[in-house]
Amino acid sequence: MVDIEARTELDGDVYRTLLESTKAIPWKIDWATMAFAYIGPQIESLLGWTPESWASVQDWIDRMHPEDRAWVVDFCVAQSKDGVDHEADYRALSKSGEYVWIRDVVHVVRNADGEVEALVGFMFDISERKRTEEKLLNMQRELERLSFKDGLTGVGNRRCFDKVLKNEWNCAQRSRQPLSLVMLDIDYFKQYNDHYGHIQGDNCLKRVGALLDSMATRPRDFLARYGGEEFVLVLPETDAQSARSMAERCRELIEQTQMPHEKSSAAPVLTVSLGVGAMIPDMADEPLSLIGAVDRALYQAKLQGRNRIAMADEP
């Protein structure tokens, strides 16, 4: 008959060998003393700290990134007290001074009376996964940034305009400060395209976009390509008179570049027509009311001969 004690010891040795041959790092903490009863030797190759240096839970806490420490400790203690198995991702300090991303998978062991007796678990090195996640997140951010950018001119696109206008509209409602829009259209752009070709037409749009963008000098001033040859400026905390002055500077800047436009009936050079409007929106007002008023003003500027500014009526 096989000696049961010897068999148990043999099984324990086999079990430990299996645990210590994996990349996962096994550990056990005695709940009453908060001391490490065991931690796998793999910890040294991962973090540089010897197994013997993991004496108590405080060593685990001290070797955690300061930004992760409070929430991880609070979370793990609360879950353990409740007897709930749990996981936590955090950055662990290596002996060389660098941080390694760790995932701790924790199982709560209870005694016959249902009281917490120990915590056992595994530490996993998830640094590569975190690097991949960060790359994917950066790619997502870049895609989101590009999705708000006009592909031709590099200024904001219509989607970005809608988002910015909504945000500034909400700010204007709360602060009771005026919000202005300047909408402009390149005069006789179809004729420009037909005469000079689409490549030159694209270059024209790029140049106009760059010129207008240079005028949006305040941090919250915003320029977008509204569609086709139309651009729009969002001017927070700007009254109608100041917006009109900005529009006039934009009109003059583009005319003074002296870009030839032989097919324009407004001037021998490239010009723009502009509509300007401002309002302090009430809580019941919608941004479309201001957009519509400014769009109608732009239409009036075209009817009046182009290369000029028209002010919107109060929406």
Automatic annotation (TrEMBL):
The GGDEF domain, residue ranges: 177-314
Classification of source organism: Bacteria, Pseudomonadati, Pseudomonadota, Gammaproteobacteria, Lysobacterales
MF annotations from Gene Ontology: diguanylate cyclase activity
Enzyme class of the recorded protein, top EC level: transferase
One cellular component (GO) term of this entry: plasma membrane
SMART domains (UniProt xref): GGDEF (SM00267), PAC (SM00086)
EC number assigned by the record: 2.7.7.65
PANTHER family attached to this UniProt entry: DIGUANYLATE CYCLASE DGCM-RELATED, REGULATORY COMPONENTS OF SENSORY TRANSDUCTION SYSTEM
Catalytic activity: 2 GTP = 3',3'-c-di-GMP + 2 diphosphate
Protein name: diguanylate cyclase
Cofactor(s) it depends on: Mg(2+)
